[in-house]
What we know:
With 269 residues, the chain is mainly alpha-helical. The chain folds into two domains: 11-190, no CATH class; 193-255, no CATH class. The protein has helices spanning 11-18, 23-33, 44-47, 57-67, 72-94, 106-121, 131-134, 140-150, 192-207, 213-225, 229-233, 237-242, 251-255. The protein is globular, with a radius of gyration of 20 Å. Mean pLDDT is 82; it is low at 179-188 and 239-269.
Amino acid sequence: xxxxxxxxxxxxxxxxxxxxxxxxxxxxxxxxxxxxxxxxxxxxxxxxxxxxxxxxxxxxxxxxxxxxxxxxxxxxxxxxxxxxxxxxxxxxxxxxxxxxxxxxxxxxxxxxxxxxxxxxxxxxxxxxxxxxxxxxxxxxxxxxxxxxxxxxxxxxxxxxxxxxxxxxxxxxxxxxxxxxxxxxxxxxxxxxxxxxxxxxxxxxxxxxxxxxxxxxxxxxxxxxxxxxxxxxxxxxxxxxxxxxxxxxxxxxxxxxxxxxxxxxxxxxx
Length: 269
C-alpha cells in the first residue's frame, strides 16, 4: 500500500489477503495505520495547504473491486478520496483560472479525480457525513455522480443515469475476483440511523438554503425526479411511512404522498 511501491500489479497484496482468515478486519487495521479517513473538517480543510491520498489510488481501486461499495473498508477508503477531491476543488474555486492547485502534481490530480469518479460509478453509498463537504463546492462533476449513483439504492430506487465518463489519465490494475470475499454490488447494508440523519439534513438544507446553488439544484432534482417530495418534507415520517393515520396528515403532505418510503426509516421528534 505504500505510495512508493509499484502499484500497477497488486499480486503481493492479493497473496497476503488470501492467507488471512479475516481479511477485511486486517485491511481495516492497515488503512487505519496509514491514517486513511477524514483528516480535517469543513473549516480546517479550507486552510490546508496540501491534501492528497494517504495511499496509492490503485490500492483503493483494488478494495472497491474486491469488496464492493457496501464494505466498511471501501467506505473507509472513500473518506480519504472524498476529502482529497474536495480540497482540490476548494483550491480551484479560490484561484479562478488555474488548472492545478499549488503543491499538487498533475499525476496526483488525475489520480484523485479519476478514483473519485470510479467510486461513484461503483455505487458507493452517500453518507450523512459527506454532505458538509459537498455543500462547499459548486462542481457538478463532484456532487451529481454521488447523488445519482449513491442515493437511489438507499431509497430502493433504480439508478436512472449512466456511469460518469472519466476524462483523466489513469492506469488501473487487473483485479482478480474471489466469490468468497467479493460482496454483491446490490447488497444493501444501509445504516438505518444514518439514513434518518441524511433525510433530516436534506430537509434542513432545502428549507434553509444551505450549500451552493449547484448542491441544492442537484438535491432538488433528485427529489423531484424520484417523487420523494412527500417523504423528504413530511413533518412526521412515522405517519408518512406507515400511512396508518391519513387523516392526521395535513393537505400539503397528502398531495405529496407519491412514493412508498422505506419502512425502516424512523422520525425522531
